[in-house]
Amino acid sequence: MAKNLESTTTLHNGVKMPWFGLGVFKVEEGEEVYNSVKWALEHGYKSIDTAAVYGNEEGVGKAIKDSGIPREDLFITTKLWNADQGYDETFKAFETSLNKLGIDYLDLYLIHWPVPEQNKYKESWKAMEQLYKDGKVRAIGVSNFKEHHLEDLMKDAEVVPMVNQVEYHPHLQQRDVQAFCKQHNIQLEAWSPLKQGQLLDDPTLTKIAERHGKTTVQVILRWDLQQEVVTIPKSVKQHRIQDNADVFDFELSQEEMQLINEMNKDERVGADPDTFNKR
Fold first, then answer.
1. Dihedrals φ, ψ of 62, to 5°?
2. Which phi and psi (to 5°) does residue 146 adopt?
3. Organism's domain of life (predicted)?
4. Quick check: pTM over 0.85?
5. For residue 189, how far is the Cα from the chain centroid?
6. Which domains does the chain have, with CATH numbers?
7. What is the set of active-site residues?
8. How many Cβ atoms are within 10 Å of 72's Cβ, its own excluded?
């Protein structure tokens, strides 16, 4: 179980991935993203998650470089955008991301969405398998894939995805996806773990938080970890980045876990992967 910001889960290929990291979705390129990443790294975060479509890879890269932390001590994730899917396109997009980040390999590269168009994600996956074989990426995975997308991808894949990053919070627990991923040794990772702030005043969570002298945010993030789900909350405020990581000194009881498990509504705040086809 995660004991601190350096605690890792071991992916099915042996690569160690931190249980906890910083996400930078909707964090502005420039000073805002630079500061977020800088503060996170100063506080002991090892994992940073960005994406080509966020438009902030350069700021992330600059903060990494300026931190002076050895590259091998960090875990950097970015994602292949929908418009860049396809075999040759994936190599190009990968090089662009790498150049913007100013690094020479990635720890994790994800297909951002399972765009249905002509099964392009399968072509992209073939390219990612090659990048993995060439040692340019330590682990490859997907994002927003449901079970049927994973089954479809894995029919022709040589490498089973190491990670599936999905919208995951107490109102959207994705139990079928989680069970499928467990069965195939795919690590589940949560984006939008706080449902974009919509859960912060929930009475069940508030009560549990009061019991532990914690915030509702900390309770949700702790629940993620106890569900064995990697989590990457975002924030652009220094104190929040620190507070978000203050989840390693308490444990939710089985009863408390059950109360949160009962909050599921299968309710999304983001797009449905079956219908999302934005380029």
1. -65, -45
2. -85, 175
3. Bacteria
4. yes
5. 5
6. 8-198+228-237 (3.20.20.100)
7. 54
8. 8
Residue 146 to residue 86: CA distance in whole angstroms: 20
3-class DSSP string for 33-84? HHHHHHHHHHHCCCEEECCHHHCCHHHHHHHHHHHCCCHHHCEEEEEECHHH
At 80, which amino acid appears? L
CA angle 202, 208, 213 (to 5 degrees): 115
Query: In the structure encoding, which two tokens stand for residue 256, read together?
Result: 């408390």
Containing 167, the helix (H) or strand (E) segment is: strand 163-167
Structure confidence by residue, pLDDT tens digits, 51-75 = 999 999 999 999 999 999 999 999 9
Rounded Cα–Cα distance for residues 209 and 186 (Å)? 30
Contact 91, 65 (CB under 8 A): no
Of the chain, the percentage scoring pLDDT greater than 90 comes to 96
| Sequence-distant (≥ 6) Cβ neighbours of residue 204 within 8 angstroms | 259, 260, 263
Confidence category of residue 116, pLDDT binned at 50, 70, 90: confident
| CB within 8 Å of 154: residues ≥ 6 apart | 160, 161, 184
Q: Cα separation of 120 and 143, whole Å?
A: 14
Calculate helix-pair angle for 57-67, 87-101, nearest 10 degrees.
Answer: 40
Compute φ and ψ for 166, nearest 5 degrees.
-135, 160
pLDDT of residue 118: 64
Quote the crossing angle between the two packed helices 203-212 and 254-261, to the nearest 10°: 160
Mean pLDDT of 4-28: 97
